[in-house]
Amino acid sequence: MVLAVFTCLFCFWPVGLVAIIMSCVALSYRRRKNDLSASRMTTVSIIISVITLCVGIIGIVVIYFSAKHYTERHNAYLTTAEPRHLHGWINGRRYHNKQS
Q1: Is the pLDDT of residue 51 over 60?
Q2: The whole model's pTM is what?
């Protein structure tokens, strides 16, 4: 039950919620002395919790590297961009450099 709650809160809540439900069903089977069904439901709950944990870790890694890639590209753009006055702008107005 603890693993199911942990994965629901911190990893991927929709599948974690299913793991919590399976864990609750396993507890109710255990209370009714139906050990075979309780054992099966416990196994299903653990498998779903581990899958949820893997999905959560993969999601965190993808988000981390996506954010890192975006900030590196954005910072590289900011450091290589020319100042505004070199693009033909003065005080927010476009000027044309007339050559004779």
Answers
A1: yes
A2: 0.64
